[in-house]
Design a protein that fits this description.
By secondary structure, the protein is α+β, with helices and mostly antiparallel strands. About 55% of the residues lie in helices and about 15% in strands. Helix 1 runs antiparallel to helix 3, helix 1 runs parallel beside helix 4 and helix 3 packs antiparallel against helix 4. The longest helix has about 40 residues.
Length: about 180
């Protein structure tokens, strides 16, 4: 069993919040954002590759994404990958680049995206609680091995719980901010 390491727990909880920020960055809010295409993978050269490894994505206008494919022979597969990614985007192929106009979000779609943001936040909270459980288990193991006293364990458990509460609040704040952005409030 691993020894209790507060810095490691903090790093892992921070990672869960960063992961949540990244996941939420891919949700559409009605504005063009290059992270929107991060989850898209393209089948080229006989394997699946992230879009950013076969093309440059930019946002030249607030409601338009531009995808500059490096190898012209990959424009078809890239266009197909974007259409089938479930992002509700229809690429316009002008031969050299793909233009992606960002459509207005319907109220129904906004609610779906807000629900998805909530699910991402719940996933982050679960990850943070799992880190807390690992920390508590390590403390109990250290006490069993007589490396720390019962009082030390209890003090450290309180620290772990405070850390957990802080990071869950951070995750909730990030999610609420994104939900409000999506719902246009």
């Amino acid at each position: 069993m691993a020894k209790y390491d507060k810095a490691d727990l903090e790093r892992r909880m921070k990672g869960a919040v960063e992961s949540l920020r990244h996941d939420l960055g891919g949700l559409r809010t009605g504005r063009a954002n290059t992270t929107l295409l991060d989850p898209v993978t393209v089948e080229v050269y006989g394997s699946h590759m992230p879009l950013n490894q076969v093309a440059t994505v930019s946002a030249p206008e607030p409601r338009l994404l531009s995808v500059q494919v490096w190898d012209k022979s990959n424009i078809g597969p890239v266009e197909k990958a974007i259409r089938s990614a479930g992002l509700g985007l229809n690429p316009i192929n002008d031969g050299n680049t793909l233009r992606l106009p960002i459509p207005d979000l319907t109220e129904e779609r906004r609610k779906e995206l807000a629900k998805l943001a909530h699910q991402y936040a719940e996933k982050a909270r679960v990850a943070i609680r799992n880190v807390r459980r690992d920390g508590m288990d390590a403390l109990k193991a250290d006490e069993t091995k007589k490396e720390i006293s019962e009082d030390e364990r209890k003090r450290s458990e309180a620290d772990v719980q405070k850390l957990t509460d802080d990071f869950i609040k951070q995750a909730d704040d990030v999610a609420v901010q994104k939900e409000q952005e999506i719902l246009g409030k």
